[in-house]
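Re: that chain you flagged

S.,

Sorry for the slow reply, it's been a week of failed gels. I finally had a moment to sit down with the sequence you sent. For the record, here it is as I used it:
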Amino acid sequence: MAQQLRAIRTRCAILNAAAEVFAQHGYHGASIAQILEKAQVTRGALYFHFASKEQLVQGIFAEQVTEEGFSPPRTYKLQELVDETMTLACRLPKEIMLQAGAKLAMERHLQELTDGGPWEAWAARFASVVVEAKRCGEVYPHVAPEELGRFLVSSWIGAQVVSEVRSQWEDLEQRISSIFAYTLPSVAMPAVFSQLDFRPDRGTRVMAELRAEVQAALVAEPAS
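Prediction finished late last night. Pasting the structure tokens below so you have them in one place:
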């Protein structure tokens, strides 16, 4: 068990180090030597977990769509969609793994490593939530979940790129909020739209809620 835990920690250390190096230098500017220095592991340990730079990219892409940061269940599925997107905007400026994924996803040849990279994974995730929203009668009949999922990802990418250049992501939450302000009226049924919260600080508030839930669970957990 101890050996298994060490292997998990080593893998995480390598992946986090690779994310830092890729986020700073991009794929072609990053070297294995830089990653080794940052991770403080041997070359053998790195190649035990990741046989190449391409596999490191695949590992980073796999970390982009995880349960971490997903919102708690809401009355409306559309609110869950908003919350997931807004928490992503909140997390990006703070999490190097997401920053690395965003940078690497802009390189076309790397997306082919994982069948479209994180963009397709997020589009599929968003579409699945819209499917549930449609089943619950929250959206207009004309709404196509897959198309809306792709549209939201495309809008997100544009907002993220412009926000990085203009403000190093400081205004990203505001930009994502604006996307919903102009998109949701043509998607959500009026009675549902009036109940949705997509204010710019929504992601920050949801992340605080998630942290409070984790803390409460730790306090309630009996000592072993």
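What I noticed first: The CA atoms of residues 33 and 43 lie 8 Å apart.

Talk soon,
D.
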